[in-house]
Design goal:
elongated; Ferritin-like_SF; about 170 residues; mainly alpha; Rubrerythrin diiron-binding domain-containing protein; disordered C terminus; oxidoreductase activity; two-stranded antiparallel sheet; Ferritin; 6 helices; Ferritin-like
């Protein structure tokens, strides 16, 4: 299995996991965020598939996951809707966070080994997207661990690259 095939497997597994999590929650906001993350994994899969086949890269409009998540969380806060989640559910989200972290590290490591600058840039772009997913998942974990406190204290600052999301600085 080459690096592209491995990356495709990672992304396919991630998509399946997010869709599975989405199917297990009744919370409409969480379901939307998890479905969005699954779709992000599909986009990554397509990129790696094209790279593996040495085809032209697809031009896809990038989804601003932070902007979409911010909208969902603001709606939850407006509704003052706090849900109850089991420890098992929290563990599922923590597992997804670890997976995103592993993907991020893998893509950064592989990018450093690539000689082709375009491929290196693609790996780094996807690594950055995985890092954004990590920040989003950290906030999801905080939300499902302490929903009422999170909704009362959430700071929805500027959520674009290099700014602050949910009180955390991103670069």
């Amino acid at each position: 299995m080459n690096v592209y095939e491995y990356a495709m497997k990672v992304e396919k597994d991630g998509e399946k996991y997010y869709r599975d999590l989405a199917s297990k929650t009744d919370d409409v906001g969480l379901k939307s965020i998890l479905t969005m993350l699954a779709e992000e994994e599909v986009k990554h899969y397509i990129v790696f598939d094209k790279m593996n086949k040495k085809e032209a890269m697809p031009t896809q409009a990038s989804v601003d996951v932070f902007k979409s998540a911010k909208t969902i969380f603001e709606k939850l806060r407006e509704e003052n809707k706090a849900c109850t989640f089991s420890d098992d559910q929290i563990d599922f989200y923590k597992s997804a966070l670890r997976s995103e972290e592993n993907s991020y590290k893998f893509y950064v490591e592989k990018a450093s080994m690539l000689e082709d600058e375009e491929q290196k840039a693609i790996f780094m772009r996807i690594a950055e997207e995985e890092r954004q997913h990590m920040v989003l998942l950290e906030n999801l974990i905080e939300y499902i661990s302490f929903p009422q406190r999170w909704l009362e204290n959430a700071e929805f600052n500027q959520m674009d690259g290099g700014k602050t999301i949910f009180g955390q600085t991103i670069h």
